[in-house]
Amino acid sequence: MRRCGGAVMPALAVCVSAAAVLLLWPWDSGSALGLRSFILLAGRLLLVLALLTLIISVVIPWFQSYSLTQARSSLVAVPEDEQERRQRLARKEQQERLSEKTSYYLENVIKPREEMKLRKQEEHFYQMTGQNWKLTQGQRLGEDESVVHESGGGEMGLETPSKEALRKRKLPEHATKPAPPSEPVRQKKGLVLPEEPMETTEGVVTVALRCPSGRVFRRRFLKSFSSQVLLDWMMKLGYHTAIYTLCTPYPRRHLKVGHDLTLEHVGIATDTVLNVEETIPCD
């Protein structure tokens, strides 16, 4: 900029000198200026000012751009290795800043949020499974007793360590007294079905029970088995004899069974289908 200013100042000086010459030059031969000469002089003055303005507006930017170009060219070029090293340092610093921000966010935001979420899930699990006692802090065994003994006063303070230990080891009465003998539990008699014979065994029949639910159960019996086995089988499937009974499909009638009647005696000599129905009189 200093160089530009030094170059512009002579140009301005030249322009001002030219303007002074134009103003002081005797344009008419007469000694006095008339109206016409004054108008011409004023026009020339305006023309000189316009010329000066044009020169200043064109020359000064040109000198400024020229000075900037010279200043840029005078700068020492940075080597490529130095540029790459600076770029690597800048990238490394940026990555370190990002890593610090990420670690701070993980430590102060994400980790507490995950711990709170895990704690809520654990509390919900214990509440659903009825294990709320796991959510309490708990206390050491005998801790309450020691607090009571310390606040008890004079009598507790007179106990010797051996007596105090004996008192703490003393079990409650319900743990030392034997429990009253309870009534013997009657074992419930289970329904036992005879083993299912092979298909090739002589006298084997297949009985199918059509239940009210629509399911059909099949089983093999010997014709010599007691007909009571059919009722036992029905009860084992979940249909009590007080509510349900066995009926033949056609003709529809109750199947009379008993311990002294075999399957062959009640009419089951071949493969048969029986209906499990509610206890309603059948025709």
From TrEMBL:
CDD domains: UBX_UBXN8. GO terms for molecular function: ubiquitin binding. Residues 200-276 form the UBX domain. GO terms for biological process: ERAD pathway. Residues 139-186 are annotated as: Disordered. PROSITE patterns: UBX. Coiled coil: none annotated. It comes from the Eukaryota. This is UBX domain-containing protein 8 isoform X1. The lineage of its organism: Eukaryota, Metazoa, Chordata, Craniata, Vertebrata. The gene is UBXN8.
